[in-house]
Design a protein that fits this description.
By secondary structure, this protein is α+β, with helices and mostly antiparallel strands. The chain is about 40% helix and about 25% strand. Strands 1, 2, 3, 4, 5 and 6 form a 6-stranded antiparallel beta sheet that branches. The chain has a 4-stranded antiparallel beta sheet with strand order 8-9-7-10. The longest helix is centred in the middle third of the chain and has 35 residues. It is elongated.
Length: about 280
């Protein structure tokens, strides 16, 4: 198997550093291929996709992320590729020529993105409830629920059972309304610190209720202020905040098809880089 293709980690602004050393997947030497004022971060590879068992693939994905981090640190901005973007040679052009052609064809988009992402980071924010604590708060604060509890105390056992169901329904309704209200309140507050936001799928937890899962694109000098805002949210009774990052802007990288040879991959979060 010849090393006649190029594995692409990222696109970055053109910098003086041309060689990152043997930090790539499989210990391969990572270097840059320039076009005008941008460049691709690559290593030489066989034309076939990388394969292996689950643990091997996880290790390769982790190394991919480490290389993107190194490029990001060196250049100050990075447009990360997903795992296994490979640009191959064809009958007329070498792999290097096809990388440069790809950079040329996508130059306007790549240039816009690397400029847009300069000095910005991606942060993951998840907000979760302790259901027992929130239920207790709702029961204590909601007038309808308090009234039903008071009425139930004076009823017979049979009617008290009926009231318990009414209380449970009232609490459930109020919990749903509170989740919506808190989501809107948190979102409006947090987006004020971000250049862009991505709403992610809510995840299930065995003993928590997630009400928000965001990716935020934030200027570096705003990260501390965002952290302080999250700290204030964390102080609310029954609320847990999970804050991950900073990462390169995987979520916010535009979906771009690598057009070299048969390589077709889109930009997407690298596993292990999201909270």
């Amino acid at each position: 198997m010849t090393q006649d293709a190029r594995y692409v980690y990222a696109v970055i602004p053109r910098i003086d550093k041309k060689d990152f050393g043997p930090i790539g997947i499989g210990g391969n030497r990572v270097y840059t291929i320039p076009y005008q004022d941008i460049c691709a971060v690559v290593h030489d590879c066989p034309p076939e996709p990388y394969q292996g068992d689950e643990e091997a693939v996880k290790a390769m994905v982790a190394t991919h992320g480490d290389v993107v981090d190194a490029a990001w640190e060196a250049a100050g901005s990075v447009l990360p590729m997903s795992f296994d973007v490979i640009i191959r040679p064809d009958e007329e052009k070498s792999a290097d020529d096809n990388v440069r052609k790809w950079l040329e064809d996508e130059y306007t988009t790549f240039k816009m993105r690397v400029d847009e992402f300069r000095d910005k980071v991606e942060l993951g924010v998840q907000i979760l409830w302790d259901p027992a604590a929130i239920t207790r708060r709702v029961a204590e604060e909601n007038k309808e629920v308090r009234k039903l509890v008071t009425e139930m105390a004076a009823k017979s056992r049979g009617l008290a059972y009926f009231y318990q169901h009414k209380i449970a329904e009232a609490v459930k309704k109020e919990m749903e309304a509170k989740a919506d209200q808190d989501y809107r309140r948190y979102y409006e507050r947090l987006r004020g610190y971000a250049e862009d936001t991505q709403v992610n799928k809510i995840k299930k937890h065995p003993d928590k209720q997630m009400i928000m899962n965001l990716s935020l694109l934030v200027k570096r000098d705003r990260v501390e202020a965002l952290g302080e805002a999250l700290g204030e949210i964390r102080e609310e009774e029954g609320v847990e905040v999970r804050f991950t990052g900073p990462w390169p802007p995987y979520t916010f990288a535009a979906k771009i098809v690598a057009t070299g040879g048969e390589a077709e991959r889109c930009l997407e979060p690298v596993e292990g880089k999201q909270g």
